[in-house]
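## Example record

The block below lists the input lines for one assembly entry, exactly as stored, with component labels intact.
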Amino acid sequence: MPSIESRRVRILVADTSPETHEMLRSALEMRGHDVAVTNTAANLQGLLEHCDVGLISDDLVAGCPFLLARTPGTAPYAISLARLAVSSPPDEQIIWQPDDVLTCPAAPAAIAARIDLAQRVTGLKQALDERMGELADTLGRIQDSFLLGECPGILNGAQVATFAVPAETAAGDFLDFHQYDENCFDVVIGDVMGKGVKAALFGAATTTRFLRTLQQLLLEPKRYGLPSPEMIVNRVRGKMARQLSEMESFVTICYCRFDLEQKRCTLVDGGHLRTIHFSAQDASYNLLEGSNMPLGFSAAESYEQTSVRFGDGDVFVLYSDGITEAQNAAGEYFGCERLAELVASHSSADARTIIDRLRGAFEAFVQDGDLQDDVTCVAIKIGSADEDLLLAHDHLEIDSDLTKLDDVRHFVRGFLTRRSLRFVTDKIVDDVVLAANEAVANVIRHALASIPGTSIAVSAELRRHRATLRISHPGQPFDRGTIPAPLLDGSEEGGFGLFIIDQLMDHVRYTQGPADKQLITLEKQLGD
Amino acid sequence: MDLDIEVIRAGEVAVVTLPAGKLDAGNTPELKQAMNPVVDEYTTVILDMSDLAFVDSSGLGAILSFTRKLAEKKGEIRLCCLQKPVQAIMELVRLHRVVDILNTRQEALKSI
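Predicted C-alpha cells for the full assembly:
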C-alpha cells in the first residue's frame, strides 16, 4: 500500500462569516496549506473543482446543486462547517452528505487534524481506485487471453462465428475450440458460478484443464481415434471435482463435437443451457438438453453424451445465461425461445451474419442497460462454405516514411502466416510481402513525395481462394499505362517496382477510392 | 543512420558482407554511401548476402549501380550466398543474367 504523505493541500473555505474565514485561514496556512475563501455560492462548484478539500457552511450548500447531489467519497473531500449555538428551524435545514463535520469555532489543532484525516482518506481512496483499475485490467486480460478461444480455421462444410461481451466484473464465461482437422472440431462453452477474479480464474483453469486432458488422452498409447466427448468430460470431472468442491464453486459446461464427415453433433451437457439446433430440412428448431449436473456438483457424476445428425443448412447456437437472463427496461427476460426464434428466422444466412443479427437483436433488447453478466454466443452453420466467405481481415496504418516498410512487411507476413493455412504457401507469402513492399514504397516515393508524414492505410483480406491487399493514400492519382516496362538488360537501375508487382500478383488495380483517396488493390490467388 | 558493412581484402578483391536483415528503399541510400569507397578503391567486388533475408527493387537498383560503376573501370561484381527469396527476386528481374551469382564465397573467389 502506498504511504500517505503529508503534503500541501488545496483548501477552499466557503462560509459567509469573515471570522470563520480568518480562523480557518490562519490555522491552515500555519500548517503550510493553500487556502482560498469565498462567501458566496456563486461558482462554488467551479472553485471546488480546483481543490482537494472544501470546508463548506450549510447555508452556502443550499445554493449549490453540485453539493446537494454529492455522495460521500466524491472528490473533492467535503467537510461541513457546523456552528455551535446556531440552530436552523427544521424546515430550513439543509440535507447533504459531506465526508466529515467540523464544529466551529474550533481549535487550530482540531482543524489541522481534520485536514490530516481528509488527506489520509483521499489517499487511501486513490490507492484503492488504482488497485481496482489494475484488477479490472487483469480481469479483462484474463477474459481476452484465456476465456475466449480462437474460432476454428478452415472447415469442410461449416462456419463458426462468435460474439462475446464481458460484464464489467468478469463473470466466468468461457468458450474454447479444439480443431482436429478440417472435418472435426469441438466446442466447449461454460459458465463458472460467481463473479469477479475467482470466477475468471476458475474459467481459465477449466479451459486449461480441458485442453490438458485432451492432450493426455490423445497421447495415450494404443488409442485409436479421438477420445469421445464423454470420455473427456469424465476425465476433467475426475481432476476438478475436488478443487471445485473445496472452493464451493461449480461450472456448467456443454462440450460439443462436430464431425462434418459423419454429419453428427455429439454433446455432453453438464447443466448448461439448452443448445439450439435449427434443422433446415424440418424448418424448425430443437433445444438439445442433457441430464448431467454441472462440474463440481458431485464427484460421482458420470457424464453421458447424446448425439444428433445434421444436414446442410442446419444451425447450432450455444450461449451463456448472460443472453437469456438479460432483462429489458420492462423487466422481461430475453429468454431461450426468443433466441431460438431469431436463429430460425436468420438461419439461411452465414454464421457471421447470424451472429451479427443475434447481437443486434440482443443489444436492441437491453438497450443501454448495464450488463450484469458475461454474454457469450457461438453459431455453427453447417453447409458448404461460401467460396467467397471472408476468413480474416486486418488493417495497418503507417506514416509515409520509407523506414516504415519494415512494418508493412511484418504486417502482411503476420496476417498470412498466423493461421498456418496449407493453401497459403511460403512462396505465396514471400510474393505478397514483396509486392506490398513495392507498392507502398512507390506510394511514399512518388504519390506522396510532396506530402511526407501523411498516413497510408493497408488493409488485408483473406478468402478461401485469394488474398487481397488494399493500399489507400491521399496522394497523386496514378495511371499505370503511362509507365513502360523496364529493360532487364542491366542498363537501368530503377523502374522494377511496378514490374515486380505485376509479375507476382494475379490482379493489380489502381483506382480512385472513397473519400478522395487513391486505392491500389493487389490480389493473389491461393493454392489448391 | 550509418550502415555497417564488413569489407575483407582478398588480394585485389574486396569481399563485402552485407548487413543482416533487409535491403529496401529505407536503407539503400546508406548502403550506397557505405559502398562508395569500396567501389572507388577496388575493381572486383564480391557481395556476400548470406545474412540478407529481404531485398526489394531499390536494393536491386543499388546492386546494379555498383555493377555499372565497376564495369566503367573494367571491373566486375559477384554475388554469393543468396537466401531463397533474394534469389527469387534476382531471377524475376533477370539480374542473374547480368551479374554472376554463386552459391558460396569460395566459388565466388574461384570464379575471378
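Helices of chain B lie at 28-41, 57-72, 84-92, 95-98, 105-110. Residues 57-72 of chain B form the longest helix (16 residues).
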